[in-house]
Design goal:
74% of the residues lie in helices and 0% in strands. The protein has 82 residues and is mainly α. The protein starts with a helix and ends with a helix.
């Protein structure tokens, strides 16, 4: 439930939580897309379900959500453009 609230706060670009407010500031400062953030949250939600990964495609999707998204979010901070 809290992850869905965080998604809503990010969409609205407003939160009373200082951690989320700081994330919103960083997203705006570096002109981030919300997609990698939401994909990362989807990975966190998957972790909460304790489901087993069924096949290689699901494993690749999971790896992207919990790892690839972090890399994408780091790119603008590190100055990577391509």
């Amino acid at each position: 439930k809290r992850l869905e609230e965080i998604k809503s706060e990010l969409r609205q670009r407003k939160s009373n939580n200082p951690l989320i407010s700081n994330l919103i500031f960083i997203l705006e400062h570096y002109h981030f897309s919300l997609k990698p953030v939401f994909d990362l949250i989807d990975g966190l939600e998957f972790d909460l379900t304790l489901k087993q990964i069924k096949d290689e495609n699901e494993m690749v999707q999971y790896a992207y959500r919990v790892g690839g998204t972090v890399g994408l979010l780091m790119c603008p901070i590190l100055g990577v453009k391509d």
